[in-house]
Design goal:
The structure is a single chain. By secondary structure, the protein is an all-alpha fold. It has 17 helices and no strands. α3 runs parallel beside α11. The N and C termini lie far apart (76 Å).
């Protein structure tokens, strides 16, 4: 009896430990290949899913463990996005960046929606695809700029500002979409009055939650971080911040929002904390352990039989993902950035990774009527393709720009 009852736990620990080791190996190998590690993480999950078809190892207990780790990885990802943002700097840059951001979100969202409709998806799945394609990926877009030493240039700062706004607005749009999905999918028809009423209630709730987060960041966070610096040593002080961030994320989920928006707002609340807290080694280790499991979970949810059927939908969504961001970013960037930098700025917005897959994953919790397996597979293909190819293209474009006296290493003249 003891041996039999211990077997599921042993398999669970073995798979989690093996996945962790593979994630570390993927991080090193993909760094040498200059590819985002998340591509490898998704492939790890897909490998486990395919392995399960040969040897059934993913019983409910094991899947439950991976689901829990994926949820914690989601919180870690969005908390870090918020923690790395600078709301005050964003507000100061808003007049210039907001034109590009708003146009980019509208164009890429519409491109994603109509591409999904053309691929044969119904209204709600198409809305999910449209919202998912509004976001970009800071983690994929910025490393080529950092490697080129151009992130501090005016163009590099513009890319950072627009990417951060894309991610924040993507999470907010996701919260609104998730709130109205039950209304959109209820009954045989869509009651647009109910949708508008639900949307208005969600906006008011989100505004109240935002006000509460602002009050915490304005009056409670500064004395809290001072007390942590005075009375706690690393790693305890960062662990307290992470614990509070997890509680805020859970509160957002209980209020009807997702863990994702709670984790993002929690990170924003602590974004002004001193760097000694941000760069605490304990948090880096915790993040490195948990974050891969979100993407491993994406791979685990892929239906192998649906991947072939997702090729057509994935191709259409990939075209929409590229054209939506390139056109949506390049046109307004033509007005506020040097013309020689417009293409590299627009191309930097193409990658879809963390936020896009968070939106698909969270919407997928409502069932296959909201996110069919072909849409899930197609969006995963978009993430893999844009993340694998775009950094190399941006790197080459930046190399051309460095040879140009008006390139990103020089101050932008603006127009």
């Amino acid at each position: 009896m003891v041996e039999a009852s211990a077997t599921p736990d042993s398999v669970m620990v073995m798979l989690v430990g093996g996945a962790t080791l593979l994630a570390i190996l993927v991080r090193h190998v993909f760094a040498r290949l200059r590819l985002p590690a998340l591509v490898g993480y998704i492939l790890i999950g897909l490998g486990l899913r395919l392995g399960h078809d040969v040897i059934p190892i993913l019983d409910p207990a094991v899947r439950g463990a991976f689901d829990l780790l994926a949820a914690l990885g989601l919180v870690a990802l969005l908390f870090r996005v918020g923690l790395g943002s600078n709301p005050q700097r964003l507000l100061s840059k808003l007049p210039g960046a907001s034109v590009i951001w708003l146009f980019s979100v509208i164009v890429s969202g519409l491109a994603g929606y109509y591409a999904a409709r053309w691929a044969g998806f119904d209204l709600v799945p198409s809305l999910v695809a449209g919202v998912a394609l509004t976001a970009t990926s800071i983690g994929v877009a910025l490393p080529p700029w950092q490697a080129a030493g151009a992130l501090g240039s005016e163009q590099g700062s513009l890319v950072l500002d627009v990417a951060e706004l894309d991610d924040i607005s993507g999470v907010v749009l996701m919260a609104l979409l998730l709130g109205i999905i039950p209304t959109l999918t209820a009954g045989s028809g869509i009651a647009w009055t109910g949708v508008l009423t639900t949307s208005a209630g969600l906006v008011m709730s989100l505004a109240a939650f935002t006000a509460g987060c602002y009050a915490f960041a304005r009056w409670l966070e500064p004395p809290l971080t001072r007390a942590l610096l005075q009375h706690e040593r690393a790693p305890a002080r960062m662990m307290i911040v992470v614990a509070m961030g997890s509680l805020i994320a859970a509160l957002a989920g209980m209020l009807g929002f997702s863990l994702a928006i709670g984790a993002l707002f929690a990170g924003l609340m602590f974004s002004k904390a001193p760097r000694r807290i941000h760069r605490d080694r304990a948090y880096i280790v915790l993040y490195d352990f948990l974050s891969p499991f979100f993407f491993i979970g994406i791979g685990l949810k892929l239906e192998p039989a649906a991947l072939t059927g997702a090729l057509g939908a994935g191709g259409l969504l990939l075209v929409a993902a590229v054209l939506g961001k390139v056109i949506g970013t390049a046109l307004p960037a033509w007005l506020v950035a040097p013309r020689g930098s417009v293409l590299v700025i627009a191309t930097s917005m193409v990658p879809r990774a963390e936020i896009s897959m968070v939106i698909i994953d969270q919407a997928g919790r409502y069932g296959t009527d909201v996110v069919p397996p072909t849409l899930y597979g197609g969006m995963t293909m978009v993430a893999l393709a844009t993340c694998a190819v775009t950094p190399g293209i941006v790197e080459r474009l930046l190399a051309v720009e460095r040879a140009d006296p008006g390139g990103p290493d020089q101050p932008a003249s603006g127009r």
